[in-house]
Amino acid sequence: MRITFLAIFCTLAAFTHGSAQVVRKATDKSAESKASKSTPRRERYRVRTPDTSKIPTVTESDRFLDLGERFRKEGKWNAAEAAYKESINVWSGNAEALLELGFLYIDRNRLPEAQGVYNKLRSVNSSVAAELLADIKRYKSASR
């Protein structure tokens, strides 16, 4: 099922965005795919600094990121991918959206795309890119 930008936008319009400073993110990959069962990922936390949370493009990008996470939890892979990509289109410096898109590609066994996201992420935030690269390497070694 292909999701259009309009469907994402309409869903986003109905989506309410929390105002908490720190949002706990649990990433349970066990339900996502057989390949991902062998490479569990640790929990990550998103920290929103007060300075960036007031910038409209950052806020909109974070909303698409949240939407992508919701779709991912529901198993709507194409919709999650579209939401993550839109988050990146809105704000190209959103390292977390790039990271989540890379993780989604790993979970879906699309390693060339994950590697491409890693290359983009390296120029945005090298320490976050290292986390994605570690997962790519873990996945490759587990699938041997």
Which labels suit this protein?
mainly alpha; two-stranded antiparallel sheet; Serine Threonine Protein Phosphatase 5, Tetratricopeptide repeat; 144 residues; globular
Concise account of the structure shown:
The protein has 144 residues and is mainly α.
Structural write-up:
- It is a single chain.
- The chain is mostly helical and 144 residues long.
- The protein has a single domain, classed as Alpha Horseshoe (Serine Threonine Protein Phosphatase 5, Tetratricopeptide repeat).
- It is 62% helix and 6% strand.
- A two-stranded antiparallel ribbon has the order 1-2.
- Helix 5 packs parallel to helix 7 (126-142).
Specify Rg, calculated over alpha carbons: 15 Å
Oligomer: single chain
Poorly predicted tracts of residues: 1-43
Binned strand content? 5-15%
Q: What is the helix/strand order?
A: HEEHHHHHH
User: Could you tell me how far the N terminus lies from the C terminus, measured between alpha carbons in angstroms?
Assistant: 31 Å
Which strand order do you get reading across the main beta sheet?
1-2
- CATH class bucket: Mainly Alpha
Total of helices: 7
Tell me the name of the CATH homologous superfamily.
Answer: Tetratricopeptide repeat domain
| Strand tally | 2
Give the overall average pLDDT.
76
The appropriate CATH architecture is: Alpha Horseshoe
CATH fold call? Serine Threonine Protein Phosphatase 5, Tetratricopeptide repeat
**How many structural domains in the coordinates?**
1
